[in-house]
Specification:
Blueprint: H1 2-10, E1 19-21, H2 24-28, E2 41-43, H3 44-52, H4 57-68, H5 71-84, H6 107-120, E3 132-135, E4 138-141, E5 153-161, E6 165-174, E7 177-186, H7 189-203
Antiparallel strand pairs: 1-2, 3-4, 5-6, 6-7
Length: 204
């Protein structure tokens, strides 16, 4: 979702200050939220932080509808872009990644996508390392546990589903060396943090 949004910004087809409308569908969205208000408009830059820092499923829908009109149409754009990027084992049916039997990504494809986001949109990568964001009077910390440790971490995103456990796609940089790593299937947030930290340390 953020790849397609960054691409629109990069091409000049959208601006960070553009205001996108919040539908009832977005407002009703469950799970992690940035708490957008129904029938309001939200700036694209706030939505970026709402997705990346706050894991806002509602923000994802606002972006999807803002770009493509409907989430279904946006998912079609996601699948087209996935094919262009060589994500051969991915299929998207929504913008937020909540459970659907037809919505899937492999660890390898997550890794490829992370590398593409970093390589293709370096000007926007800083959002992934922001530690907190406040919207509508609600301050939330970044879900990425590696950002709070002194291990060089500067991105990307956590995830959790009952079918796949706790996971993270992360990047870290020390000196002139950068690594990307993905783990999934952890049993809880603590083991995700511990295993991801161990893997980053091992890689360096």
């Amino acid at each position: 979702t953020v790849y397609l949004l960054f691409e629109k910004l990069h091409k000049g087809e959208m601006k960070l200050t553009d205001m996108l409308p919040v539908s009832e569908t977005a407002w009703r969205m469950q799970g992690s939220k940035m708490f957008v208000a129904i029938n309001s408009k939200v700036a694209v830059e706030d939505l970026i932080r709402g997705i990346i820092v706050q894991s806002g499923n509602d923000a994802c829908i606002v972006v999807a509808e803002g770009i493509a009109g409907t989430e279904e149409a946006f998912a079609e754009q996601m699948n087209k872009k996935a094919a262009e990027l060589g994500l051969t084992n991915s299929h998207f049916v929504n913008s937020h990644g909540l459970e659907d039997p037809n919505h899937k990504m492999t660890v390898r494809d997550l890794l490829k996508l992370a590398e593409h986001i970093y390589a293709d949109f370096p000007d926007y990568y800083h959002y992934f390392s922001e530690l907190e964001f406040e919207f509508n009077g609600i301050k939330q910390g970044n879900r990425n546990p590696l950002l709070y440790k002194d291990i060089g971490a500067d991105g990307l995103k956590t995830g959790h589903l009952s079918v796949s456990g706790y996971g993270i796609t992360a990047s870290a940089k020390r000196g002139d060396r950068r690594i990307f790593m993905v783990i999934h299937g952890m049993s809880d947030m603590q083991s995700r943090s511990d295993e991801a930290t161990a893997l980053v340390e091992w890689a360096f």
